[in-house]
From TrEMBL:
The keyword Flavoprotein does not apply. Keywords: Coiled coil, Endoplasmic reticulum, ER-Golgi transport, Membrane, Protein transport, Transmembrane, Transmembrane helix, Transport. May play a role in anterograde transport of membrane proteins from the endoplasmic reticulum to the Golgi. It is found in: Endoplasmic reticulum membrane. GO terms for cellular component: endoplasmic reticulum membrane. This is Endoplasmic reticulum transmembrane protein. It comes from Mycena rosella. Belongs to the BCAP29/BCAP31 family. Signal peptide: none annotated. One of its GO terms (biological process) is protein localization to endoplasmic reticulum exit site. It comes from the Eukaryota.
Length: 207
């Protein structure tokens, strides 16, 4: 794997670790402190700006990997139609298969990195909204304890309850997405191992 794809894989691994941390069931006070620091720290803001630039390069790599995957697939189909792949023997077929596999791997790697960056951003801001809604609900509940609630206050409480319930549901949906992503990654590793065992392709070959 070339250095830029290795860096992309490291970025993907850090995104997965960050995602697991964001959806981890922390106590409310701890989560409030952590997300407050992440949203207000100037250092985190600079890191986020650098990551945005790196995702631009990942998007370029994704476009290049996608184009290469289509080209390798077209060349493989053309070779099968012309019979040149069979003429070269098993080595030629393994070469086409290896090129196709690595091009697909690079496409999935860069594409999933970009997709997870969008998911992380959405999860972060949804969690911030949930924390703010919970804070507003707690303040409103404290101010109305022991007092008859006015119609406006009751309406606001109902709206906050609905918003908290909706954000909690979205948080559970992202937990489900995390499990699906882990299953897809495991399936990808299984297919990669099965491919290498079936073809005997040299793992040192890289596109």
């Amino acid at each position: 794997m070339t250095i830029y794809y290795s860096l992309t894989f490291m970025l993907l691994a850090s995104e997965m670790a960050t995602f697991c941390f964001l959806v981890f069931p922390l106590p409310h006070n701890v989560r409030k402190s952590v997300f407050g620091f992440l949203s207000q720290s100037p250092i985190i803001a600079k890191i986020a700006y650098g990551l945005k630039i790196s995702f631009i390069f990942v998007a370029i790599l994704f476009a290049d990997a996608l184009q290469r995957m289509f080209r390798v697939t077209a060349e493989s189909e053309l070779a099968k139609q012309n019979g040149t792949a069979h003429a070269g023997g098993a080595q030629a077929e393994n070469s086409f298969a290896a090129r196709k596999f690595y091009s697909q791997r690079n496409t999935y790697l860069t594409g999933f990195t970009l997709f997870l960056s969008l998911v992380l951003t959405r999860v972060f801001y949804l969690t911030l909204d949930l924390i703010h809604s919970q804070e507003e609900y707690a303040k409103l509940k404290a101010s109305t304890d022991g007092k008859p609630a006015s119609p406006d206050a009751a309406k606001e409480v109902a709206e906050l309850k609905a918003k908290v319930a909706e954000l909690s549901k979205k948080d559970r949906d992202f937990d489900t997405l995390k499990k699906q992503a882990a299953q897809q990654a495991a399936e990808f590793d299984r297919l990669a191992t099965k491919y290498n065992e079936a073809t005997g392709a040299n793992s040192n070959k890289r596109d």
